[in-house]
Amino acid sequence: MIPRTRRAQRTDPDRATVDRRSRDLLAAALTRTVHLLSTDPQLIESVEAVCVSCRVELTVTDSLADTKGADTLLVDAASEVERVPNGAIIVALASHQSAWELAARSAASAVVVLPDAAEWLAEMLARSEHETGAIELGRVLGVVGATGGVGASTLACWLAQEFSETGVPTAAVDADPGAAGLDLVLGTESEDGLRWPELHQFSGAVAADQLWAAMPSAGSLRYLSWDRQGTHASSVPVGTVIHALRSAATYLVVDLNADRLEEQAQWCSTVLVLTPRTVRGVLAATLAVQRCGEIPVMTVLTGLNVADVDAAIVESATGVGCAGSLTFDPRLPQELDNGAVLQRGKRAKHAKAVRAIAQQVEARS
Predict the structure, then answer these.
(1) CA-CA distance, 215 to 78, in Å (whole number)?
(2) Under a CB-based contact definition with an 8 Å cutoff, are residues 104 and 66 in contact?
(3) DSSP 85
(4) Residue ranges covered by each domain of the chain
(5) Model confidence pLDDT, tens digit, residues 199-230
(6) What's the rounded Cα separation, in Å, for the pair 365 and 332?
(7) What's the predicted TM-score (pTM) here?
(8) Which tens digit of pLDDT belongs to each residue from 160-189?
């Protein structure tokens, strides 16, 4: 008997008709509960077909309250839930464009567009309970300059390098398609590997392991960069991909686009606002903090102290804590042009400052 969609009583397959190996696999599958939150008959039929193919029983409901205790929760992208529970999977038909928007503002672990990703979904559902336990999502640390040209990209790269050298999976992510590419800062523009423009027709499942394996690296640090022209910037699901990568990385350090701070801050666990030691810099930092909404924010002081600005002044003005400061380095612009920013970050004064900032972020998270 093939497992059928359950709306009331569970039905068990006839184990006497299968061999030992199939029986073991089937028993493992049936120890898991898979719920679908949807009222769309077409989507329900598509998900049912996947579940039948991998011998997993499906329970369909229209109430999020009924999904408590489910090992795997599938949420219709067209549902009216404001936020998806942590670890859930968003499912949609190819005609539904809302999947990406819902994923970007939620704690879902993946987005699955059917029928493109039916095979991926079947493989995921057929795994054992041990293999498909709750995934601990990594942290997203956004970095943005209160004003332009203050070194936000540099700090993002240095922080990503600091985290990666502690041995945890870390990626630097470029979220500004108009900045000519973070790989130029890293000096790796000629390296092969995935770049944002290649994801402009991304459909099906946003699978973190596949993305992670395709991303290029600079030493132990992975990165995802734009190209020189910001190609396909309007059609790449950046927020969705960043969220998906949280299941592969412990830290994602994102070089944010200041012009889209309100939107991009929502992807982040914490935002760092790099603040020049000037009156204008402090005023701009105050506005940047407000633009981040409810997302936790900290400031980082940078540049020459021409206005006698210290951490206490910035904290008083912005209402958020100061994570530390970076000292002025007159050689840094040349090192940026040379693609040697990571090497420059290893100098004692920079390494010590970045380590202190990283520790403050971790302590206040």
Answers:
(1) 31
(2) no
(3) P
(4) 15-126, 139-363
(5) 886 655 556 777 888 899 999 999 999 999 99
(6) 30
(7) 0.70
(8) 999 999 999 999 999 999 999 999 999 999
Beta strands in the chain (DSSP E): 34-37, 58-61, 72-76, 89-93, 110-114, 139-145, 170-174, 217-218, 221-224, 251-255, 270-276, 297-302, 322-325
Which residues make Cβ contacts (< 8 Å) with residue 32, sequence separation at least 6? 56, 71, 72, 125, 129, 132
- Show the DSSP H helices in 246-307 as ranges: 261-264, 279-291
Homologous superfamily of domain range 15-126: Response regulator (3.40.50.2300)
Measured between alpha carbons, how far is 59 from 53 in angstroms, rounded to an integer?
15
Q: How many CB atoms lie within 10 A of CB 29?
A: 21
Instruction: Please give the full DSSP string across 120-158, using - where no structure is assigned.
Output: HHHHHHHS-TTTTSPPPP-EEEEEEESSTTSSHHHHHHH
Domain 15-126 identical in fold to domain 139-363 = yes
* Topology annotation, domain 139-363: Rossmann fold (3.40.50)
